[in-house]
Structure formats: structure tokens, C-alpha cells
Amino acid sequence: MTIVNGFIIILMILLLAYSTYRAIKRKSVLMLIPVCLQFFAAVISVMSFINDVEVLPQVEAVYIFFGIIPPSVLLLYDYRKMVEDFKSKGVYEGLVRSAPPDEPCSSFPPEGINGIRKKKQLAEVIDDLGFMPENIRNNFRRCLIQAHTLLERGDAASAVRIYKILSKAAGSSYAMYYNCGCMCYEQGLFEEAHSAFQRSLRLFGGHDDERCSIYYNLGNTSFMLGKYERAANFYEKALEIRPDEPDTLENLSYTYVKIGQAEKGTEVMKRIPADESSYRPHFVWGRLYSEAGRLEDAEEELKKACRLRTDSVEAREQLAKVLMKQNKTDEAIDVFNEILVLDPGNHMAWYSKANALARKGLWKEAAAACREAVKLKPDFHRAWYNLALALDESGDRKAAIDAYIKTVELCPGFAEAYNNLGIALSLEGRREEALEVYEKGIEKAPGDYRLFFNMGICLMEEKRYMEAAAAFRNALDINPEELEIYYYLGAVLTEMRHFNDAINAYSSALRIKPADGELQYNLAAVYAMLGRYDIALENLRAALEADMAIIEDVKVNSAFDGMRGNSEFKELISSASA
């Protein structure tokens, strides 16, 4: 029993270590409950083992119900979740992932909303350190000068590090935390920026204008973190101090749209004094209406903005997006041309114009526009990919293959590019190269079922049926609801004369789409080859009810040769042909 008890103790300690690790990684306070229970059970078991005390059944129950069952359940749950995520995303993330951060969200270019209030001048920050002894204050001054020098040189990350250290050392300086928040925001460190601004607000004791700026910046950081209701609350507090501040009103209106309260957002915008001859109100209204889904109103406002400022690229970019959403492709192309006159080096305008041309089926023109985009930005993998698509559609498959290859060089995890490259190579008769591409794609994106599916088709064309069947089954493991995979798997299994497996494949597909005539037809053919003519007839009737055009295939398909003397079969063919 000593060996058994020792094994149980080791198991409990290992499970306790896993639960502790899980609680730390997921930053979960609730996880402390099972950790404490496990710790309690582990201590009892260790003490019993050390003192060689006979374990009572009640104590053994404590071991099991507190020390083993809860962490085992969590371990199994984490393992199952890991496998599901691997299959769906193709990404291995381990048993325990860190608690997912709130994703920064930006819906308006360049970051969505009017920017934060500016950093305080160096002199203002030093003045806020007046509570310090002169010698310490001088040391802070030197460090702050160094931080601002680093900022001017473009080394913002080092400046942020200095401000973080100084903010903690200063303790009660709101200006230090305020500037630290501004710098973190500019670096995209929105969580850290939010914390710094909150600390600045708690320490602030001055006049309301300064407090208004902190509220506004807190609103911005909340918005960028996707916490829109909190952002709206901070903007409202800022507006209690400055009711007519246009930037705050604009940001609040965008925030309400993100919450799903578009009408409330437009009501907020009406509070902004608007001059009909001013560019800014029309541009902002256009963006707001676009986000709220009021595309016709957005188009009208943005067209006014473009007329008022004939050199505005940003208004035209927004207008083109709105026109594309309304399928006004020709007008959008005209707007893209206007942008390119104003800014010939705008690679995104060339790229967007190419997409518009592709929508019209003008593939050669789309390819030419994509070439301009990649000429201006050679590492723009999406433009290379769209160039490949346009070249493929225009018939220049060899050039398309080169563009696909460039795409995967720039973005090795781009599964769709591997798929299309493999298909293009296969159509060129270069199937071995296509198979190599699919293998590389699967290595980079193992969760994309299409790579396995297309590999299966390629292997099927090479008459490597067993390998093809394995590829199709891998595809189904990832996406068991994809009907087309069952068609091909059934066809491959039929070629291999694995008729029962083929029947299972087609039957599985019928559970997804019961009224599919082609599936019923394929099942009828397999049953006919097995000599099970009664079931073949039933499936054939169902197939013809779904699609009478199948009758021509039935007449020439050798699978039904054994049935052609059957009176029911003759009657079915005759009635279907009539």
C-alpha cells in the first residue's frame, strides 16, 4: 500500500502544479478555489505518508474528490479544447492559453477616432514635481530631458521605459502618469495607457479643464480596447466639463454607433455646430453614416466634403468605400482615379481600384492596377495574391503561378494562396509540384481543410486512390459538414472497389443534404455494382425525382448494365425519358 499511496501523492502534487500553472496563465481568481482544495488534500496525504498513518476511507474520499477529480476534469477539458482549436484554426496553442486580451478595435482610418490630447511640455511635468526636494527634482529633470531627447530621435520605446520608472518613483505626480499614458497610447499599448490615465485621474487635484483631457484620453483608450460602453461614459464625463468640444462629440457619436445605438450617435453629432460651407462636419457625418449603415446619406455627405476640399484624399477614400458597399463600382473607380491624380504613390488606392476592376470582370486592367500596387509596395502580399487571381482569370496562368509563389514567400501562412497555387500547377499538368505545394501549405496551416481536399483531387487525378482517400478523410476530420468532400471520397472509394465504404460516404452526405439527386444517383450506381438492384432502384427513383437530367447518364453508365433486363428498371427509364 505504501507504493500505491506514494504514487497517489505524486499524482496529486503533479495535478496541483498543473492547476497552479493554469490559474497563473489564465489570471483567474476562481481557479484559486480548486487550487486551495487540492493543496489541502495534498497536505493531508503527505502528512499521512510521512507519519505512516493508516488512511481512513473518509480521508481517501478527500484525496479523490478534492485532489484528483477536479484537476483531472480541468486537464481533460483543456486537452479537448486544444484539439478542437487545432482542428478549427490549425494553430497549436498548448493546453493552457493566457487569458485573451480585449482586442483593440479600429473602424475608422487611421485608428478610428480623433487622437488623444497631447503630452504635457517638459516644463509642466517638472513643475508638477514641486513637492520633491530640489536635489531629487534635478535628477528627475535630467532623466526627463533624456526621455524627451529619445522621443525626438524616434526611440519612443526607450522613452516610455524611462517614464514608467519615473512615474512609479515619483508616486504622486499626475503629470508623469499622464505623459506616460500618452506615450503608451502612441505605441499601441492601450491597456498600459489606460492604467496610466486612471492613475493620473486619481492623483489629479487641479482645475476641470485638465480633468476633461484625462477623461477624454480614458475614453480613447477604452474605445481602442473595444470597451465602448466604458468609452462612452468617459466621453460623457468630459462633455460635462466642455459640452461643445467637437472632438469629444465626434468620438462619442462613433462610440454609440459601435455599441449599436446609431440613432443616439447621430443625435450627439447634431450637437456639433456645423457650417454648411465647412469641410470637416460633412466628412465626419459621412464617416458616421457609413458606420451606421446609412450608405446613401454617407455618400451625400462625403460628396459634399469632396467638393468643399478638392484636394482631400481621405474624403475620397471614404467615398470610394461607401460606393463599393452600394455596388456603384464604376463611380468608385472614378473616385480611385481622382485619388491617384492627387497621390500617384498611394498603393492602397491602386489595390482598391484593382478590386473594383475585378468586380467588373476586367481582369487585365485589374492585373495592371495590382502591378502598380506591388511596384510601390513590393512586400504587399495581398496585392501579389490579387495580382495572381487577376492573371489566372485573364488566362495567363504561368504568370499567376509566379505571383502566387511570391505571395507565399511574403506570407508563409496564407493557406488560400497555397490552395490556388496548387490548383494552377495541377491545371498546368505539374501535379508533383502541386502536391509539394499542398504539403507545404498543410505544414503552415494544418487546420485548413481545403488544402487536404485539393491534395486529394490532385492525387485522384494521379490515380493514387489510397492516398487520395486519406487526404479526403483528413479534410472531413477538419470540416465534416462539407458536402463536396463526400462526393470525391465516395468516387475514390468506388474506384478502389471499396463499395461499402463508398456507400457510407454517400450516405453521410445525404444526412447533410437529403434531396441531392447526384448523391442518390451515385448511391444507386454503387448498389448496382454490388448487385443490390432493389436498393439501387429506390435510389435511382429518388435521384430522378430530384433531377430528371440524370436520365442521360443512367442510359450510358455501365454500372447499371446488370439491371437493364429488369422490368422495373426498363419502366423507370421509359417513364423518365417520356
Structure description:
The structure is a single chain. With 578 residues, this protein is an all-alpha fold. It has 30 helices and no strands. Among the domains are: 2-89; 122-326, Serine Threonine Protein Phosphatase 5, Tetratricopeptide repeat (Alpha Horseshoe), CATH 1.25.40.10. Helices cover 75% and strands 0% of the residues. The N and C termini lie far apart (83 Å).
Quick gist of this model?
The chain is an all-alpha fold and 578 residues long.
Provide the fold topology.
Elements: H1 2-26, H2 32-50, H3 57-89, H4 122-127, H5 134-152, H6 156-170, H7 174-186, H8 190-203, H9 208-224, H10 228-241, H11 246-259, H12 262-269, H13 279-292, H14 295-308, H15 313-325, H16 329-342, H17 347-359, H18 363-376, H19 381-393, H20 397-410, H21 415-427, H22 431-444, H23 449-461, H24 465-478, H25 483-495, H26 499-512, H27 517-529, H28 533-546, H29 551-556, H30 567-577
